[in-house]
Amino acid sequence: MASIKDILIEMKNLSELMVDLAYSAVLFNSKDAANEVLKLENKVNGLNYEIKKQSLVAARSVEDAEKLTALLEIAEAAESIANAAKDLADIVIKGIEPHPVFKMVMEEAEELIVSVSVQSGSELCNKSLGELMLANRTGMFVIAIRRNEDWIYGPDKFTMIREGDALIAKGTEMGSELLKKLANSEIEVDEIADIVDEESQSQFDD
Amino acid sequence: MASIKDILIEMKNLSELMVDLAYSAVLFNSKDAANEVLKLENKVNGLNYEIKKQSLVAARSVEDAEKLTALLEIAEAAESIANAAKDLADIVIKGIEPHPVFKMVMEEAEELIVSVSVQSGSELCNKSLGELMLANRTGMFVIAIRRNEDWIYGPDKFTMIREGDALIAKGTEMGSELLKKLANSEIEVDEIADIVDEESQSQFDD
Q1: Searching chain B, which residue's CA lies closest to the CA of residue A106?
Q2: Residue pair B84/B19 in contact by the 8 Å Cβ criterion
């Protein structure tokens, strides 16, 4: 079962990353990001095949089979989400320029996606994502990093941020503001809590 | 175009909420949450029909039509994601108990979903989500609130948290810990930054 569990974790993680990457690809008209989505979709297909195979081996009784069926349906759902991400990425691959309305959609949706450029002197430079804990401090999740001509997709806590990186991140409007200011070295990490407090206070006053 | 934009924003928001709600429904074996996903899926279908109709009216030239086609493909992708969420919710509606492995998958995936109960004396009580800015302070996004027998799905910044509420939220492992401690009144909001600093420091030491 360990293997079935690990496959499903990877399918869930990848399908969610793919949706974020696909929206980013359309938003920033990035063929690189779109191609990564296509590559990941192949990977998710392969994992879905693998989990079906493993489930057939694991089923020992009718009851087993029923419970495993639910796991397979979850895997199918992850694959459907991955397919939807691929369809989004295909828009970019086909070279269709996104309608200007799409940019407005992404700016007004609940979860924003932004690209911020890490300037020299920013506190983010030469720190790992794990150390920075950006998600916990700002509500922003880094989806991908563009470094010169290379991309890092789905960075983990060990990924280091370097000067000049473009961070593609998703989160709230306030989080986007905080991340931009951190990347511009307009603010330091230890000022975030006070800024959020002030903003929270102003919500109170309204 | 305003209407097309607004429909697409709603489709994107709803499809993402549906995926989170559907995973929550399976995780907590909640027919209420699953039924909400089914209801929202109907809504997304209706919105997809509406956006197609509006696009036909808006297209004035071949160039227009091409750009609008990309918007419609984005709407289709949102509907596919909504359909995948419906398939997940159907597992719960069919009464299939989730395999114990699924709970482990959700605990080890990158984005966790947790349910935390707001205790009397918690600083969360009688504050709005907007004021609390939980997403920016902890990285946790509240997906739904269970209050007695009622549910609030996709709460907004005006939604008040009350004693006894069960908050269904997604985010990081560290964020889940912070939210649980806030809800248990083990910590106050203004202690979060120091706790995250300490955790960040320990990442440094490793």
Answers
A1: B9
A2: yes
Q: A185 phi and psi, to 5 degrees? A: 50, 35
Question: Residue A143: which H helix or E strand, with range?
Answer: strand A141-147
Structure confidence by residue, pLDDT tens digits, A109-128 = 999 999 999 999 999 999 99
Return the closest-CA partner of residue B74 out of A187, A174, A25: A25
Comparing A155-169, B49-63, B147-161, the range with the smallest average pLDDT is: B49-63
Give the residues across from A166 on adjacent strands: A117, A146
Q: Which of residues 136-155 of A touch B (CB under 8 A)?
A: 136-139, 141
CA distance A199 to A121: 26
Res A1: pLDDT: 65
- What angle separates helix A62-93 from helix A31-58, to the nearest 10 degrees? 170
Q: Which of B109, B110, B139 shows the shortest C-beta gap to A136?
A: B139
Distance from chain centroid for Cα A119: 22
Q: Is A158 among the domain residues?
A: yes
8 A C-beta contact, residue A72 and residue A49: no
Q: What are phi and psi of A23, to 5 degrees?
A: -60, -40
Contacts (Cβ under 8 Å, ≥6 apart) of B191:
none
Same domain, B75 and B121: no
CATH at A154: 3.30.70.1450
Q: Which residues of chain A lie closer than 8 angstroms to B89, CB-CB? A: none
Tell me, what's the ipTM? 0.93
- Which residue, of A51, A76, A100, is where some domain finishes? A100
Range of the domain at A86: 2-100
How many structural domains are present in chain B? Answer: 2
User: Is A56 in the B-facing interface, judged by CB distances under 8 Å?
Assistant: no
Contact A14, A41 (CB under 8 A): no
Picking from A83, A133, A178, the nearest residue to B196 by CB comes out as A133
Q: Which helix (H) or strand (E) holds B185?
A: none
Does residue A149 share a domain with residue A77?
no
